């Protein structure tokens, strides 16, 4: 029996990068999946590739900052699959710059997606999970939740994601909802490849393995946290960083 047979998963930011790997992992483990992404075409293309019939995977365009769009997406998911069992809050953005040069827009954009978007999607899923007394939520934080130069905005939101996780874990136990987060480190994604070469080299050299991790290595840990195997795990933050020495 596959890990997620009979389960319905919603994965935000699922069109590419770590999110895409999570979608692929969950699909191979038997889940029915709603891929949410601001890139509607990308979400739909991935869904079509995995499941041309549309019976098991759907791609939905959704700006998670907009509550009406989030509500509409979850309404469509429930209409299609009947419920939501798993939510992976993967969607996130960076707008890196040294703090004294950071614009209000750069701050607000990151807070909106990584903060309000997290709230919007989680609350919609929570209302469903609370009623059925079952749910698995996994949030994507970062090793840079501990702070990183040029990422005051991003680090702020990723530290908040950890506190958000722990708060909801305390509330969710009575409803049989597990809430955990992972903190990926240097992962081979488009976002990571965009950082300056010397910075990337420094990150890689601080790992025990002297390499970048793969998105699939993050997906494996997310799958564990969302499975029955982690039924006694909640409120945790798991580093998926190859022994990254960030302190």
Describe the structure.
- The protein has a single domain, classed as Rossmann fold.
- It contains 8 helices and 7 strands.
- The chain has helices at residues 17-28, 40-50, 67-81, 104-132, 152-172, 190-193, 197-205, 215-225; strands at 8-12, 32-37, 57-61, 86-89, 135-140, 177-184, 237-240.
- A 7-stranded parallel beta sheet has the order 3-2-1-4-5-6-7, with helices on both faces.
- Helix 4 (104-132) links the parallel strand 4 and strand 5 (135-140).
- Helix 4 runs parallel beside helix 5 (152-172).
- 45% of the residues are buried.
- The model has no long low-confidence stretch (mean pLDDT 96).
| Overall strand count | 7
CATH architectural name: 3-Layer(aba) Sandwich
Shape: globular
* Helix/strand/pairing category: alpha/beta
The CATH class is Alpha Beta
Order of H and E elements: EHEHEHEHEHEHHHE
Strand content: 15-25%
When the domains are counted, the total is 1
Straight-line N-to-C gap: 41 Å
Rg (C-alpha, Å): 17 Å
Number of helices: 8
Keywords:
8 helices, Rossmann fold, alpha/beta, 247 residues
How are the secondary structure elements laid out?
Blueprint: E1 8-12, H1 17-28, E2 32-37, H2 40-50, E3 57-61, H3 67-81, E4 86-89, H4 104-132, E5 135-140, H5 152-172, E6 177-184, H6 190-193, H7 197-205, H8 215-225, E7 237-240
Parallel strand pairs: 1-2, 1-4, 2-3, 4-5, 5-6, 6-7
Helix pairs in contact: 1-8, 3-4, 4-5
């Amino acid at each position: 029996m596959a890990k997620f047979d009979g389960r319905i998963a919603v994965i935000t930011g699922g069109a590419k990068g770590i999110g895409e790997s999570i979608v692929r992992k969950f699909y191979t483990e038997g889940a029915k999946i709603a891929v949410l992404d601001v890139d509607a075409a990308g979400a739909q293309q991935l869904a079509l590739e995995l499941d041309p019939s549309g019976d098991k995977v759907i791609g939905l365009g959704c700006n998670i900052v907009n509550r009406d769009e989030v509500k509409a997406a979850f309404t469509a998911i429930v209409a299609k699959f009947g419920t939501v069992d798993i939510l992976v809050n993967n969607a996130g953005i960076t707008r890196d710059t040294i703090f004294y040069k950071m614009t209000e827009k750069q701050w607000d954009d990151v807070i909106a997606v990584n903060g309000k978007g997290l709230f919007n999607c989680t609350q919609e899923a929570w209302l469903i999970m609370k009623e059925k007394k079952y749910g698995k939520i996994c949030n994507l934080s970062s090793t840079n939740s501990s702070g990183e130069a040029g990422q005051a905005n991003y680090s702020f939101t990723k530290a908040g994601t950890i506190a958000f996780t722990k708060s909801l874990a305390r509330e969710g136990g009575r409803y049989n909802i597990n809430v955990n987060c992972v903190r990926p480190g240097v992962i081979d994604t488009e976002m990571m490849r965009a950082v300056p070469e010397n910075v990337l080299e420094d990150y890689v050299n601080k790992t025990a393995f002297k390499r970048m991790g793969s998105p699939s290595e993050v997906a494996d840990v997310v799958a564990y946290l969302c499975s029955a195997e982690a039924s006694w795990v909640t409120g945790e933050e798991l580093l998926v960083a190859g022994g990254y020495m960030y302190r």
